[in-house]
Amino acid sequence: MTSTATKENTELMAHLLRRAGFGATRQELEQYLDKGYEAVVEDLLHPTDAENMPDDVIRRYHPEQSELRDLTSSGAYWMYRMISTQCPLEEKIALFWHGFLATGYTKLNQARSQLNQVEMFRRNGLGSFRDLLLEISRDPAMLLWLDNTDNHNGAINENFGRELLELFSMGIGNYTEEDVKEGSRAFTGWTLGNAEYMAVRAYKDSIWPYSRIAWHFQYREEDHDNGEKTFLGETGNFNGEDIIDIIAKQEAAALFITTRLFQFFAADEVSEEGEQAIAEMMQAYFDSGYEIRAVLRTLFNSDYFKSESARYARVKGPVELIVGAMRLAGSYQSPTLGIEKVTNQSFFMGQGLLQPPTVEGWHEGSEWIDSGALVERVNFVAQEMGNTSSPGVRDIIDRLSAGNSDTLTPDDLVDQCLDLVGPITVSDATRATLVGFAQRQGDLELKDHQPGDESEQRVANMLRLVASSREFQLA
Predict the structure, then answer these.
(1) pTM, to two decimals
(2) Which residues contact 113 (CB under 8 A, 6 or more apart)?
């Protein structure tokens, strides 16, 4: 294989691992390259043992992460999982559904129920969209978040029925107000099993002496509307399962979900070439029986995804940026005091784990970037990549030292740092800025370098700038 082909394969694999996961170190990238692109796609789509940081190890250092009922410890717990997992797409798809089927702590005040929901996303997130909609309809956190506990026979609450159509499956313009009402009737009786039934036919959250207990789903036949319903043009004595069956087979649902998946895993804006990729994803959706795994396989193997058009076409969300930087730097791979501060950083950038602001989730793409959030983003990645004691940074320094003569020119330093951090390709203007910075101190002597000395700090400073670049934020 020619050096050009090797470079192209490496760049494509790095692109896949950034989008289907949180990026990869050079060592991980080399291991993936040995398998081949299509084989790696299948590995990502079929997660097995995540080998993430074990709970018992975490709890020795973080007793607050035992019950996981409060927001801070629960967000930190999920952050550990994303940082240490060996099945990155499993966590990435859970993060996608967390924003798509958004459920927030502000109303629930029970983070354990949200982590249970996240675990459900791991189990079902790559499976049938129909099954996932059924699971979220029974999910205790969602039942409370969208008030289906207040949806009764003869006194419907339309909150969940409306959002199921508007935000979770089809989008505005593909249903009527009557569909909302009829669909909501079908979900009457879907409630919490451990809720106190009051004389006024309302359900009150159970409170035990030691705080809230774990919620679970219960179907109450006596509170279900068994009357005939007409929904999206079909008529019958529908229950919630029937409503979801009808939704899942709609072309509008296929377009809605494949477009959102495209925007999360490929590009913020849908170009003409992107529309063709979405059409292929829709075909995979129907051919597979609504399977998300098949949809993503089609996307990752598409000509569009492999093209230059799909690269640097999406602003990383704050959680992706943070987790990717920490995995690249090799930090927080074992229990570390301060993990809760990392979770707070995500919130300061606009994406607090378990804290979507509304049922819409977060407004993504360019809306991740404003003057305040950009400062937080740049400062965080610069700090991570500028720490010469971090294992990932040390590996980059060692590779620079081992793979070169004693001296690196400014151009060599820039190009090799870009390669080892990505590889990422930057604009001529960005590269000129990086080279200009390196030229201020001339050639770099790495011979006999010592941990943290001036030569190593020069490499770290270059890594800081690379990580702060526009291209790193978009990669």
Answers:
(1) 0.94
(2) 140, 141, 144, 214, 215
